[in-house]
Design brief:
Elements: H1 2-21, E1 25-30, E2 34-37, E3 44-53, E4 64-70, E5 73-84, E6 87-100, E7 103-107, H2 111-114, H3 117-122, H4 127-134, H5 144-153, E8 157-160, E9 164-168, E10 171-178, E11 185-195, E12 198-211, H6 213-224, H7 226-249
Parallel strand pairs: 2-12, 7-8
Antiparallel strand pairs: 1-3, 3-10, 4-7, 4-11, 5-6, 9-10, 11-12
Helix pairs in contact: 4-5, 6-7
């Protein structure tokens, strides 16, 4: 029995390098490691560049590419409202724990053409799957579409079936829109290379969205010392009101 197991192990190990060669290597970089947010920030587009390096024994192609961009996570609550006794009140709620504040799914072709449903679900390529995965406990699943709708209308969930441009069979780029209300923090971009309905290679790159200069100081003060921030806000409002009164009085 031991001899049989040893033979099986040798066979498995002998095929391991060949299996590793079936995957492709991917080089993935971004144009802007830091997206600086100022008072006049109106949004920005981060361009991601990629190159596919097929290994020995890798599929010849054609290759399809899906780029996922995920921002900082936080908790969200969606409430359902209804009329009760002539008043509009909250009836039920669904909580989504650690759901991304930003989630973009960019692909070189429609997902239905390049990946089967099991790959879409496993790789979190759909907003509906993401909502179902982050929804807590027995909360209402019927609110998942509303959660996705709200996030899409706010510019937090983005889907583009032609968001990845194939410049050649092995080179590609993607333009990631960052809205003016983007949450500060680290953004992770992941490139998936798909051939014959299977993910044969992937890699990641990162960029950061953060406020700069005076805006950054104000944001840090609001989180690190709320009482001082509140006092400064009140004093600024009083000073602005007094100055306005003096100017209009004259």
């Amino acid at each position: 029995m031991r001899r049989l197991l040893a033979i099986v192990a040798i066979i498995v190990l002998s095929f391991a390098p060949a299996a590793a060669q079936d995957e492709v290597n991917v080089v993935f970089v971004n144009s802007d490691p830091v997206v600086a947010v100022h008072s006049n920030f109106r949004g920005q587009t981060v361009t991601l560049f990629g190159s596919i390096e097929p290994g020995q024994g890798a599929p010849e192609g054609p290759y399809s590419v899906v780029v996922l961009v995920q921002g900082p996570s936080s908790d969200w609550v969606v409430r359902e409202k209804g009329r009760q006794g002539g008043l509009v009140l909250n009836k039920a709620a669904a909580r989504y724990a650690q759901a991304p504040s930003y989630y973009a799914v960019l692909s070189s072709s429609p997902l239905s053409q390049i990946a089967p449903p099991e790959v879409v679900d496993r790789q979190r390529l759909s907003f509906a799957g993401l909502a179902a995965l982050t929804r807590q406990g027995d909360d209402l699943a019927s609110l998942d579409p509303e959660f996705v709708r709200l996030m899409r209308s706010a510019g937090n969930f983005i889907e583009a079936e032609r968001g990845v441009v194939m410049h050649s069979p092995t080179t590609f780029s993607a333009r990631v829109p960052i809205d003016s209300n983007a949450v500060n923090g680290l953004y992770l971009a992941r490139a998936l290379i798909i051939a014959d309905g299977k993910v044969i290679g992937e890699t990641t790159t990162r960029f950061t969205v953060r406020t700069q200069d005076f805006e950054r100081y104000v944001a840090n003060l609001a989180t690190s010392n709320p009482p001082l921030y509140g006092l400064a806000t009140i004093l600024l409002a009083l000073g602005t009101g007094w100055l306005g009164g003096m100017l209009f009085k004259r």
